[in-house]
């Protein structure tokens, strides 16, 4: 078990984490015809919007209540009401996800009470649009926690609390973690469907942030999980959470509708992929398809090929807790040493299983300050780690959010058999590309030997 060390710096240097409201907005972006609404100033929303646009390279529907100085002092209920009505009239969303920010949370407003009053007063105007509130102050937690809170809020707001009803045979609710990419979700869906099961992924950014260009302007999310599908999750035969931070969501579904669930901490190792596939085989009553057996064999071969490049290597990783755990477990299983592990928040129970001597809760500056980072062979973090990579002279493998200085980040796979194989190849190729190139001169054992010393007093040879 690693030692969890929290830093107490007055300021964050080269921040690692993104805020809770951004994580919550990312979750709402995976719901069809939805509009995330950040309850705060325009600056808070602008920063989150820029981050998403740079990462996904797509149009991102994201709005704000535009709190000003007067509203900050007197209260923002009027701004919230005006924003909800404007969004309803202009964009006609099926769902509005209200994410609070530090500006309004610090004042300590009664958001739930304000929202209930607005619903009663404006019931006719808001008819047909669900409004979901999630508390996500910037000063607390990180992207992972905000994402998990938003998914839980969706379940608590939309799924009716009722006794367990007859389950639809083969219907499986999948709750992916924030770190699963568009390509990861496509792979998860294909794997579940290969067993004859019907997956309902909540939220599903593979349908809304996958680069599909509609033939007309659509102001809300285009694709994703329909609100009706979320409302009907109580009929699922089983629920699967991928990551500890979405455990509260499946627990809420179990409490409200009696749906049994399983939590898998990661899908980024061979053993974890095996457990997921075995669970699907048990739920479906079918044998593992030949395609998956062949994919597993290819991953085994990739691990054999790759371990020559990882054995004895020192790796420094900075990521959100669940993502950190999955990556660290993979690299450690290939023979690498996790020399430095930095994360964003120390509350996740997953951190206790990270295969490292210490996990530091801090920023990317800690990645450089910790003594072992300078001597590492590979840095693994998002695009903001490029400065540390340059200063330390250590190659960078870009993972997570945001990746803005490379194309295709949302389409890279890192889960299940095919995705883990891709991860191994990507990391091994980076290591190979930065190995010193040996030449015949560099391998000459006599290259650095000086000429034999001849004393001036020695007699000249005859």
TrEMBL record:
Alphabetical list of Pfam families matching this protein: Oxidored_nitro
Residues annotated as domain Nitrogenase/oxidoreductase component: 19-431
A GO BP annotation: protein-containing complex assembly
Composition bias type Basic and acidic residues, residue spans: 444-454
Residue span of region Disordered: 436-462
SUPFAM superfamilies per the UniProt record, alphabetical: Helical backbone' metal receptor
GO function terms (MF aspect): nitrogenase activity
Keywords noted in UniProt: Nitrogen fixation
Pathway(s) it belongs to: Cofactor biosynthesis; Fe-Mo cofactor biosynthesis
Family note: Belongs to the NifD/NifK/NifE/NifN family.
Biological function: This protein may play a role in the biosynthesis of the prosthetic group of nitrogenase (FeMo cofactor).
UniProt xrefs under NCBIfam families: nifN (TIGR01285)
Protein name: Nitrogenase iron-molybdenum cofactor biosynthesis protein NifN
Gene that produces this protein: nifK_2
